[in-house]
């Protein structure tokens, strides 16, 4: 009960302290806190909590230092350390959290020193030695950058063996481990060697762990031979120093391999050397911004990336701006290598390398779309970043600083080199370093013991019964060598299985993996190529390892359909972070955010780089110089702290003196206040002042850049910690997997994930092709067993620097695989013996040359012979000389850099391929091999030129086509391309038929890298059924270096009659007909269709004609169409030529005629149809028109009727009105006449009475007073007053006499006038005037006037 309460209280204390609510102020607090920590049930969760809360770390820092007494340390501090040794803590974030805690504990080393003293004074009780030893080991293994140095003390402890004598077994075990670590740690410096490591340049160190992976300018410029040892020197070094020396040398050699290529690429980039291809150079670079975050697609806040510099590029990328967005996208898609993400390059100034950087491409290529385009560079480290910024800032930077991309695959080196540097503990160290030494005690896992016993008894039974094979499980039969290999793998810490070509290495590997997996072991499977890895993982699935136990590291693009689900990215995690982990992530995010902000701020000052008094004064204040610049230029203040004022009461600014000094003036208003020792500053002439200013500006700039560098370093550190936290989910997935597969490059790249997976066993496939350093870096500390399967008699790992190769013979042996080295140094190994690949005619070659014990498996004999060929193995000897390909270069070719080609051989190869096609072999059953890239290209070009040759383009289906069993269209589908490969790249693969062009042919016996026996071995072991080699035997025989390799080969060829001067063919149909095809033209001459020159003459399908081809392979002509041309007459008497198989087709002319007829009918029909259609349309329209007309007519008629009616009415109305008018006028006339009559009467009366003048006067006032009394007068009156006019009347009136007539006419006229005036028709009126008179009285004259 009491302890429960204590537990609760301790928990409360822990929380209070970690959350900062309570501090550790004294020894008592410390004691409570350390106990509280130990009371936490889950050590990993507890540490996560402490590290994620800054007060927690403070509490640890204080607690372990609060009391250094023996009692306290023994009873509190060491138990606390014991608690920390829980392995769960180290697995957190790849050891990052433990490392943080350890740094807090060990730096400064107060506690460490106290512990060492107690240990050395034998004051630690036996059960407290373990935590101390654990601390020693962990501190020793911390990376260099942690800056915890305990090497000396630990070395002393190990040297006096006190730890190894400890009573506690666990502590002793740690002692042994520390011993090993020390062996790896100790300086590899050989005693007083004059040209030993270190001292050549700024990146040459005596310990490889301090060497920067990327070279410096000085290193590039250094002409001294770099330091590295020969393999012999390493093996001859004292055994206790050997681990460190070995690792050191592995690092230096591998790095040199990278540098050799980098050097060459840079020389090409700087135009010192001719390029194999032009490398991209960009220039006129302007730094514009820092890019620190990526667009986070999940939308959970910014995702930080390593410090990246964004540069505008005014030279070299301009052509991108001329493209439309679509064109640009297409260009980038078509040129995937152009400015590829993570491609590597150097920032250079003239011939000087300033820094190395990787291209960081944005997702959407937006930067390249800008005008001018921008690129992002990630520099390899903060100091490179600083150097770059400095170089880009200098006045002529725009003209001389460039970024040059190089081809060197640094991504393949960097993780391995970094991995080597990080190796603290090397599992299986003794056996790896000294393989012939005593083997350590591993005898296999207890759970495997029953299986091992069963296998062992099966083995002894086999030996006694001399059995060929034994069954060891469900349909699994093995021979003795295979059984021995399995037994080795189950009982030995290091297993080496040599598998000659075709002996089923993967089969054995998969069986071993199955057993170990069953026994609960975690296995890391390593391969050199993705191709081999996928194959092996598929094998593992096939032997029954469940898919959910497997995981494949690497890119999706490289995997196969079956291995895609194994990818790490395809695993559904379901991983949940603890709240402490989230707290830690938040904490790191905050740190990253503030760090990023500061860095951005610092970068902005770099952008401006102002050197005013504010900046200069701060700088001068700290300047160490004999002259008191700061004092002399500081504006003096009076006793009250006020600055002096000038003459006009104006206060002097703080830069008053500085500005005057800069301009070369005197101190102005402060002239008299200049102190004695400041005079020298003011006496200085202007140029001297300027030079001081320049130097200060430079130093200020340097200072600013240093700040940026430091901030960038801090930022990158936080960023990588954040990354490590986030990769926890992946690490968690890895922990749940039993079998991890990856390539060796991948293993170095994902080393933290592999450590998280903690594999027990590493199984390496193709081990003979893998560099030792790649295997060493993959050896996670958890590894207890290493299984290497490979063949050291085949080609070695690929390297770039020939001078470091085994073949060069200088002894550096970089390309000697771990597998080969171990076997060379006497490590026990098994060799598989039974090959299942080659027919005996081929397998005899590797048996004689390389593997004397090689046996043929049961399925290698009794295979069908090669159609059309006399032999399974053919060496075609010729004397046509080689040529040089100046563009391509060969890496492994000693000295000579140009590649080789041989046109004759290429043409022969082409003809051979066609020939095999004619024999019915499909393209996937063939492979063309050649050692040289130059020749590879010639052959590829030839194939391309002839791609429409039916023998090539349809070679898979030629016979089917010929036999009429396949249509041409169907033949086009699923064509497999013909494979052409270099020998080196075809290692590990096989095919039915191999045609090889050896290429080299010269008088001098120069065969270059073809002298290597491994290459010949690979070349002759790829073919299952048929091997055709084309070459100049003389050249190979006379080679000084290669002679010993090739002479036995040719002897074998000769003794087995495989040597020919051409391709020995024979007709499948006429076996007695053979030919030797020496020249390409011979193929056409002697077997144009793949058989012999005889006509085929087989009766075709038609039963009338024979096959026209020259003799060929296909016998069955029953489906073959007959192409014989016949002349025949059809029913309509057409004469025509037709191929036989088409003779029953209808006559072409008939068809044409019929077609013509049909066309005509069709045309007429069409015409008639048109006519009818038009007619119908016409009728219809006409009818409509008529309708319309009729309608319109009626409308018009009605309208005119209406008008007539209206007119008539109007007429009547007018007539009526006229009549009425006439009536009125008539009445008026009557009145007038009456008046006139009256007046006439009166006149007559007056005339009679002799009227007075008064009366006359009165008369004259009356208008009618003067009425005429004659007709003539009346007419005049009418004319004058009534508007009348008429010439006939005038004429009449002018006649003399005829008064009565005149009067009569006047009357008539009056009547007519009245009628006209009243609109009365006169037609019915008759105006007659009979003129009675004597002849000559003017009757006719009058009448002639009577037309009014
Ligand atoms: Zn024939
Ligand atoms: Zn025919
Ligand atoms: Zn035929
Ligand atoms: Zn016809």
TrEMBL record:
Keywords annotated in UniProt: ATP-binding, Coiled coil, Helicase, Hydrolase, Nucleotide-binding
UniProt cross-references to InterPro entries, sorted A to Z: AAA+_ATPase (IPR003593), DNA2/NAM7-like (IPR045055), DNA2/NAM7-like_C (IPR041679), DNA2/NAM7_AAA_11 (IPR041677), P-loop_NTPase (IPR027417), SF1_C_Upf1 (IPR047187)
Pfam families to which the protein is assigned, alphabetical: AAA_11, AAA_12
Domain AAA+ ATPase: 491-898
One GO CC term on file: nuclear RNA-directed RNA polymerase complex
The keyword Cell membrane appears for this protein: no
Keyword DNA-binding assigned: no
Gene Ontology terms for molecular function: helicase activity
Coiled-coil ranges (or none): 697-728, 1151-1239
GO BP annotation list: regulatory ncRNA-mediated heterochromatin formation
Region (Disordered): 187-206, 1241-1271
Name of this protein: AAA+ ATPase domain-containing protein
Lineage of the species this protein comes from: Eukaryota, Fungi, Dikarya, Ascomycota, Pezizomycotina
């Amino acid at each position: 009960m009491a302890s429960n309460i204590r537990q609760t209280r301790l928990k409360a204390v822990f929380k209070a302290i970690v959350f900062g609510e309570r501090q550790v102020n004294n020894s008592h607090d410390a004691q409570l806190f350390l106990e509280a920590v130990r009371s936490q049930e889950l050590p990993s969760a507890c540490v996560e909590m402490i590290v994620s809360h800054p007060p927690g770390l403070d509490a640890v820092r204080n607690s372990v230092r609060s009391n250094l007494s023996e009692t306290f340390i023994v009873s509190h501090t060491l138990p606390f350390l014991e608690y920390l040794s829980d392995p769960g803590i180290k697995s957190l974030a790849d050891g990052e959290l433990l490392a943080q805690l350890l740094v807090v504990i060990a730096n400064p080393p107060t506690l460490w020193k106290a512990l060492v003293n107690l240990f050395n004074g034998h004051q630690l009780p036996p059960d407290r030695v373990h935590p101390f030893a654990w601390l020693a080991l962990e501190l020793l293994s911390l990376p260099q950058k942690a800056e915890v140095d305990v090497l000396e003390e630990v070395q002393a402890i190990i040297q006096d063996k006190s730890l190894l004598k400890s009573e506690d077994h666990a502590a002793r075990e740690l002692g042994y481990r520390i011993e090993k670590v020390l062996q790896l740690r100790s300086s590899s410096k050989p005693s007083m060697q004059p040209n030993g490591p270190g001292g050549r340049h700024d990146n040459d160190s005596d310990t490889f762990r301090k060497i920067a992976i990327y070279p410096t300018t000085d290193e590039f410029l250094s002409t001294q031979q770099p330091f590295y040892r020969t393999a012999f020197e390493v093996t001859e070094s004292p055994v206790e120093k050997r681990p460190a020396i070995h690792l050191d040398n592995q690092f230096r050699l591998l790095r040199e391999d990278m540098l050799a290529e980098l050097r060459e690429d840079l020389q090409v980039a700087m135009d010192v050397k001719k390029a194999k291809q032009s490398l991209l150079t960009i220039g006129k670079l302007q730094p514009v911004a820092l890019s620190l975050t990526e667009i986070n697609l999940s939308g959970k806040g910014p995702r930080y990336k390593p410090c990246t510099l964004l540069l505008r590029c005014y030279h070299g990328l301009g052509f991108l701006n001329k493209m439309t967005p679509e064109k640009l996208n297409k260009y980038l898609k078509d040129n995937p290598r152009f400015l590829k993400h993570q491609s590597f390059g150097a920032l250079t100034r003239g011939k000087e390398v300033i820094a190395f950087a990787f291209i960081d491409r944005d997702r959407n290529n937006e930067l390249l779309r800008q005008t001018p385009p921008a690129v992002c560079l990630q520099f390899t480290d903060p100091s490179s970043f600083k150097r770059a910024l400095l170089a880009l800032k200098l006045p002529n930077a725009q003209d001389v600083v460039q970024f040059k991309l190089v081809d060197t695959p640094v991504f393949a080196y960097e993780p391995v080199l970094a991995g080597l540097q990080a190796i603290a503990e090397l599992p299986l160290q003794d056996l790896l370093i000294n393989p012939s030494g005593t083997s350590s005690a591993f005898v296999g896992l207890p759970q495997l013991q029953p299986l091992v016993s069963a296998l062992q008894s099966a083995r002894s039974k086999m030996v006694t019964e001399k059995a060929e094979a034994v069954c060891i499980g469900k349909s699994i039969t093995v021979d003795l060598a295979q059984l021995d290999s399995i037994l080795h793998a189950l009982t030995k810490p290091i297993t080496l299985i040599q598998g000659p070509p075709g002996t089923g290495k993967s089969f054995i590997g998969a069986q071993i993996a199955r057993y170990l997996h069953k026994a609960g072991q975690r296995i890391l499977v390593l391969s050199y190529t993705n191709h081999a890895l996928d194959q092996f993982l598929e094998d593992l699935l096939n032997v029954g390892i469940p898919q959910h136990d497997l995981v494949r590291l690497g890119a999706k693009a490289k995997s196969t359909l079956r291995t895609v689900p194994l990818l790490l990215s395809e695993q559904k995690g379901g991983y949940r972070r603890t709240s402490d982990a989230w707290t830690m992530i938040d904490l790191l995010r905050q740190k990253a955010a503030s760090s990023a902000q500061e860095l951005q701020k610092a970068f902005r000052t770099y952008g401006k780089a102002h050197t005013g008094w504010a900046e200069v004064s701060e700088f001068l204040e700290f300047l160490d110089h004999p002259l008191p610049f700061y004092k002399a230029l500081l504006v003096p203040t009076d006793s009250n702290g006020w600055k002096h004022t000038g003459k006009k009461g104006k206060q002097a600014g703080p830069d008053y003196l500085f500005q005057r000094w800069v301009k070369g003036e005197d101190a102005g208003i402060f002239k008299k206040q200049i102190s004695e020792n400041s005079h020298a500053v003011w006496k200085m002439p202007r140029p001297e002042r300027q030079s001081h200013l320049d130097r200060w500006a430079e130093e200020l700039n340097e200072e600013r850049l240093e700040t940026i560098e430091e901030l960038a370093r801090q930022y990158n550190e936080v960023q990588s910690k954040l990354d490590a936290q986030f990769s926890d989910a992946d690490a968690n997935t890895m922990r749940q997997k039993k079998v991890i597969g990856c390539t060796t490059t991948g293993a170095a790249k994902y080393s933290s994930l592999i450590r998280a997976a903690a594999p027990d066993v590493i199984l390496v496939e193709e081990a003979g092709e893998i560099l030792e350093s790649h295997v060493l870096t993959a050896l996670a500390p958890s590894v207890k067993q290493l299984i290497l399967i490979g063949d050291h008699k085949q080609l070695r790992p690929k390297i770039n620097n020939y001078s470091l190769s085994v073949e060069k013979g200088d002894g550096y042996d970089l390309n000697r695989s771990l597998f080969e080295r171990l076997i060379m140094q006497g490590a026990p190994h098994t060799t598989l013996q039974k090959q299942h690949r080659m027919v005996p005619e081929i397998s005899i070659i590797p048996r004689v040359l390389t593997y004397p014990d090689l046996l043929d498996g049961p399925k290698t004999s009794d295979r069908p012979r090669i159609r059309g060929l006399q032999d399974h193995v053919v060496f075609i000897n010729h004397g046509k000389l080689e040529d040089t390909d100046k563009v391509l270069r060969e890496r492994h070719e000693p000295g000579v850099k140009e590649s080789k080609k041989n046109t004759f051989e290429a043409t022969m190869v082409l003809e051979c391929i066609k020939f095999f096609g004619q024999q019915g072999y499909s393209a996937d059953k063939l492979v063309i091999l050649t050692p040289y890239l130059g020749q590879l290209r010639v052959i590829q070009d030839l194939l391309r030129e002839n791609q429409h040759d039916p023998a090539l383009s349809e070679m898979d289906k030629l016979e089917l086509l010929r036999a009429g069993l396949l249509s041409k269209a169907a033949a086009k589908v699923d064509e497999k391309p013909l494979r052409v490969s270099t020998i080196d790249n075809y290692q590990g693969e096989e095919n039915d038929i191999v045609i090889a062009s050896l290429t080299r042919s010269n008088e001098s016996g120069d065969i270059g890298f073809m002298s290597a026996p491994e290459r010949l071995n690979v070349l002759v072991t790829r073919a299952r059924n048929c091997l055709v080699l084309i070459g100049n035997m003389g050249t190979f025989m006379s080679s000084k270096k290669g002679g010993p390799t090739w002479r036995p080969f040719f002897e074998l060829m000769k003794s087995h009659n495989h040597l020919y001067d051409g391709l020995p063919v024979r007709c499948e149909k006429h076996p007695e007909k053979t030919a030797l095809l020496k020249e390409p033209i011979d193929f056409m001459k002697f077997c144009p269709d793949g058989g012999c020159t005889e006509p085929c003459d087989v009766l075709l399908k038609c039963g009338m004609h024979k096959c026209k081809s020259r003799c060929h392979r296909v016998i069955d002509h029953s489906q073959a169409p007959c192409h014989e041309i016949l002349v025949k007459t059809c029913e309509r008497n057409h004469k025509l030529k037709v191929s036989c198989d088409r003779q029953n087709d209808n006559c072409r002319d008939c068809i044409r005629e019929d077609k013509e007829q049909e066309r005509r009918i069709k045309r007429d029909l069409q015409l008639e149809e048109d006519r009818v259609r038009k007619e119908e349309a016409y009728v219809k329209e006409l009818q409509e028109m008529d309708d319309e007309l009729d309608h319109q007519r009626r409308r018009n008629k009605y309208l005119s009727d209406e008008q007539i009616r209206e007119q008539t009415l109007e007429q009547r109305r007018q007539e009526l009105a006229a009549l009425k008018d006439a009536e009125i006028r008539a009445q008026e006339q009557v009145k007038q006449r009456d008046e006139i009559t009256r007046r006439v009467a009166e006149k007559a009366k007056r005339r009679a009475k002799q009227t007075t003048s008064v009366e006359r006067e009165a008369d004259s006032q009356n208008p009618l007073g003067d009425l005429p009394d004659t007709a003539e007068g009346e007419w005049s009156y009418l004319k004058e007053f009534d508007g009348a006019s008429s010439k006939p009347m005038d004429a009449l009136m002018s006649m003399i006499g005829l008064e009565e007539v005149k009067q009569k006419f006047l009357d008539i006229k009056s009547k007519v006038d009245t009628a006209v005036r009243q609109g009365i028709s006169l037609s019915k009126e008759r105006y007659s005037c009979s003129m009675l008179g004597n002849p000559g009285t003017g009757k006719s004259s009058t009448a002639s006037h009577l037309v009014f």
